[in-house]
Every structure is written in C-alpha cells, then in structure tokens.
C-alpha cells in the first residue's frame, strides 16, 4: 500500500499561475520536488514557460521541446546532450576553451556562495574574451546563498556583479534566490530561476498520507523489530508505509544557525543517543515515536494504549521534506 502525495490540483495550479511570469524559469531537478521532473516540465509547458532548468545532464528530457538550462557546470569529462535546445553552464575559464564551438552557454560568475563560477576579476581575462566569439553566448548566471545575508544582501551583490558582467558583454542575467519583485533593482533582462517557491509555495495544497499495513497489540517490556528493543509500555505497534527507500528517517545535517535551532539539535541528539526518535507520522494530532529505525519500505511506530489505533488500510498523516521524499503515488485530486 502506498505512501501518497495528495495534491489539491485546482488550488496548486492557481498558485502556479499567480506566481509564474515570463521572467521566471521553472526548475525541475532531483526528485522533482516530490512531484517528479516529467510532471513539472509538463506543468511548466502549460504555464507557457519557454525555458526550464534541470540539475544535471541526466535530467535533460530525451527530446526537449523547450530550451533546457543545465545548472550543473559543464566539464570536459561529462557526456553533454547534443540537443540544440540545451543551454550549458560554464564556470571555469579552461572549460570555456574546451566546450565545442557553437555551444549555447551561460557563463557562471562566482558569488559569495563560493560554489561554482568565474571570479569577477577574471571576467576580462583573454581566455574569456576570446571564448565569447566561439560560443553562442546566452547570458550570465548568478547563484546566491540563502539565510545569513538575507535577500537584500543578495540583491545588492547581484546588482554589483551584474554591472561588472554586462560591462564585458551584454546579455540576460539568470539569477537564483532573489525576490521576484526585486529583479528590476538588479538590471534589465533578468531571469529568475525558481523551484521551491513555485512548486511548494502553497503547502496547504499538498497532503501526504501513509497507509497502515499492520497493527499488533504489545505489553510493556515485550521485544519488537529487527533490533528486538523492549517497548516502553502497553499499546500497539503500527506498521505503516514509508521507509528509507522513500526518504523517511533520512536527514541532511542541520544548519543550526540560531540559538533555538542549536538547542533543538542538542535535544534531538540526546534523544537519539537514548534510542528514541520521533517519527514524521501523525496520529490523533501528535507525531509518534519510531519503535525502531525505519525499514526500507515501511516503518514501525509505537502507539500508547491511551490512543485508539487506526485500522489496517486506514491512512495517517506524514510531515516530510518534499525534496528528499520519493512517493509511491502522486494523486492529483
């Protein structure tokens, strides 16, 4: 039985239409923000988008109808798509020389992210200036951080770098992580890559449900699961759909940028050390404890005797991170 993402399709598409405009480039990468990349590309097409962005060359559709920007920078050892609709990102001077002549290219400028990009001081390097005459130049790419500096810092940095880049060669500016209403402060002909704010911007339109697969009554001290841990009290063990193969129970390291976030991380670490882990599954309005770490396709939960257990076949709510969860089914309700 499935772990299902239910989408209020009318509400979700209303959000897409109210958010998207021709200056926005929809991003469809990774797990497709939980929806799948094929679905997002189809939705982008329905919006009227003529360009989409994907994460890697492996995510480029076999025969794209629209222009497709590959966000991961091109390297000589990568097998590049031969489609004329593909726009490559180049982030090193050496790669500008190596990429086949006539390729459609976005040149990435290094920002305070310090991830990829040609430094601002290198924008007038002879290698870059010569390369501009052998490629099909599609513009400049700028990718900014989230969090610490805030969006105002990103806009200021974008405006500064944009001026330096445009002084070298005029062309569109492709940016990430700046507010759509601030594009005019950066310059003219600015395109905003948008993923999370577009596809996941109205969380009220999205509901995740897991199916109850089995229910077993247990007494305090009885052993359960692979690891044969003793249960802490009388109650029920629930076996529900959703395990590590779906992304349940898998976490990225916490940024812990604030005192509160650090305190939460410390408290969670203490619980983990004691063998207690709160699950993302909700029953009777509360998140419930894992009986043991999730299995590949299912999870075992402990429900105390004070709470009436759901029946086999019922569904329960799940609070997941959409970008790391692979659903069995996406239901457009």
UniProtKB/TrEMBL annotation:
Domain Alanine racemase N-terminal positions: 14-165
Entry GO MF terms: catalytic activity
InterPro entries: Ala_racemase/Decarboxylase_C, Ala_racemase_N, PLP-binding_barrel
Pfam families given in the database record: Ala_racemase_N
The organism's place on the tree of life at top rank: Bacteria
Protein name: Alanine racemase
